[in-house]
């Protein structure tokens, strides 16, 4: 059974940091590119960051570049999103995604974890 389970969300003040984690089970993790997306209330889901299956190639949305860093551990089957200098506009539910092809619609998505940044 495929599972992507996010953790690490919470409430933080503007300028603070959080580290999101995503634990993957039930599929061949090293064959998938992994990404984070987010959805704020009343808005569409948007791309945040992506990491290639070998953990070398990465891409970050312009809105988070220089503040967020995506990484993965293929041995532990984990994906991480280090978020620094958080802003109120980063408030959203963050989702972990598994992509069979770079940039394609995810084949698997987690349930999400809430991040709230207060001003």
Compute the number of strand runs. 11
Low-confidence stretches: none
Number of helices: 0
Q: In this structure, how is the largest beta sheet organized?
A: 7 strands, mixed
Q: Structural class of the helix and strand makeup? A: mainly beta
Oligomer: single chain
Rg on CA atoms, Å: 13 Å
- The ordered string of helix (H) and strand (E) elements is EEEEEEEEEEE
How confident is the prediction overall: mean pLDDT?
98
Distance between the termini: 40 Å
Short description:
This protein has strands at residues 3-7, 10-13, 18-25, 33-39, 46-51, 58-60, 68-73, 78-83, 92-99, 108-109, 113-118. The chain is an all-beta fold.
List the helices and strands and how they pair.
Elements: E1 3-7, E2 10-13, E3 18-25, E4 33-39, E5 46-51, E6 58-60, E7 68-73, E8 78-83, E9 92-99, E10 108-109, E11 113-118
Parallel strand pairs: 2-11
Antiparallel strand pairs: 1-3, 3-8, 4-5, 4-9, 5-6, 7-8, 9-10, 9-11
Main traits of this protein?
4-stranded antiparallel β-sheet; 119 residues; 7-stranded mixed β-sheet; mainly beta
Give a written overview of the molecule.
It is a single chain. The protein is mainly β. It is 0% helix and 51% strand. It has no helices and eleven strands. It has strands spanning 3-7, 10-13, 18-25, 33-39, 46-51, 58-60, 68-73, 78-83, 92-99, 108-109, 113-118. Strands 2, 4, 5, 6, 9, 10 and 11 form a seven-stranded mixed sheet that branches. Strands 1-3-8-7 form a four-stranded antiparallel sheet, with no helix packed on it. The N and C termini lie far apart (40 Å). The model has no long low-confidence stretch (mean pLDDT 98).
């Amino acid at each position: 059974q495929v599972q992507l389970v996010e953790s690490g969300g919470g409430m933080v003040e503007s300028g603070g940091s959080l580290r999101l984690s995503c634990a993957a089970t039930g599929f061949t993790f090293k064959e998938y590119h992994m990404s984070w997306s987010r959805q704020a209330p009343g808005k569409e889901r948007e791309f945040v960051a992506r990491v290639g299956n070998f953990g070398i190639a990465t891409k970050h949305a312009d809105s988070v570049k220089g503040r967020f860093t995506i990484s993965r551990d293929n041995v532990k089957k984990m994906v991480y999103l280090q978020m620094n200098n958080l802003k109120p506009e980063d408030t959203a539910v963050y989702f972990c995604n598994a992509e069979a092809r770079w940039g394609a619609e995810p084949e698997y998505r987690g349930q999400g974890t809430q991040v709230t940044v207060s001003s």
